[in-house]
Specification:
homodimer, 196 residues, three-stranded antiparallel β-sheet, 5 helices, seven-stranded antiparallel β-sheet, globular, alpha+beta
Chain lengths: 196, 196
């Protein structure tokens, strides 16, 4: 028997992503979001959902592109600040002394100090309600050498991304490995094949 | 200087969600997805992205609703199996001996043993490419008493959800708390207000 908690967005886990855009004057801006995720494998796409009231919403509407910079846990404070302050009144790069780098593929900046960044071109805008989804085709992923493994892929234990716990309003680390996907469930599948 | 890794969906973090639906004969089915997230606060909405080839895609197209059951780490193996096997050829509930419960709000089943479940009515279907997004309005969230805190909200440390690490193809636990959101960044904001 489960307890009804009502129609709420208290659903784990959600990511902690920093969306980079240029404002109409070409000033770089960043905003932290948790309403984001991968939404297609081919073409590779991710989305971020934004309120119309944000600076980032207007910036993306105008330039049709954005970046996502994934902070490591070292930058939890700066990332939280990026979600509190508005680019309409504060220069978030200057305040944090972090470095905006112009993407060579899309007309948007990313955060140099963050270990992984994704460059996106908007291919769909989906109005839902308070939030609008911007679906961006991933044109490139770039990473610091320090977080790559021997296969030249980003290693989550080296990257140390954050997780957003909406119900408790806290950030969390990524914890221990729990097993290999498409593998630990195979014993159960074999059981099924034997008995059917 | 960052290394280009190409246009790939290797972006942390993504969730581990189990989508529940009924097939045309009313048989309950479940499928594990990582392409999912919250996409609107008002109305509260989440999405899951699915390939047309899956049983779940057809089931949602027909009944226009689904549930999301969030597994705790205890059920990592069953969850992995739900992502390996197809409901077209295997009865995933019967194989795992987990219990399908019919939602009283939407025409879809959820997994009784998982600590948090979300009931959704589809309000938009967004075709992207290989994947199609099903945007569902959250009509209720239900949780086991054991995972609720004193505010009657789900406690992520009690729920123990999984995280999907796509680049390494591993599941991970949620790790330690890194600080309070809308709070740890305030010192930086105050610095900005003082100096501008």
């Amino acid at each position: 028997m489960k307890n009804s908690l009502g129609a709420k967005t208290i659903v784990p886990t959600t990511p902690v992503w920093v969306v980079g855009t240029y404002d109409p004057e070409g000033k770089p801006n960043v905003m932290t979001v948790a309403w984001g995720g991968i939404c297609c494998s081919q073409p590779p796409c991710l989305y971020v959902s934004l309120r119309k009231a944000t600076q980032t919403y207007g910036n993306i509407m105008k330039r049709k592109c954005f970046t996502v910079s994934i902070p490591s846990e070292t930058y939890a404070k700066e990332t939280d600040y990026f979600g509190i302050a508005s680019g309409k009144t504060e220069d978030k790069f200057s305040t944090t002394e972090l470095t905006p780098v112009k993407s060579d593929l899309v007309d948007a900046p990313y955060v140099e100090e963050f270990p992984l960044i994704i460059e996106c071109k908007v291919i769909k805008v989906v109005k839902i309600g308070l939030h609008t989804e911007f679906i961006g085709e991933i044109v490139d992923v770039k990473a610091d050498s320090l977080v790559l493994n021997e296969k030249n892929l980003p290693d989550i234990e080296k990257m140390k991304p954050l997780i957003w716990n909406i119900a408790g309003r806290t950030y969390h680390k990524v914890g221990k490995r729990m097993g290999k996907a498409f593998s630990i469930g195979k014993k159960i599948q074999n059981r099924s094949i034997r008995t059917h």
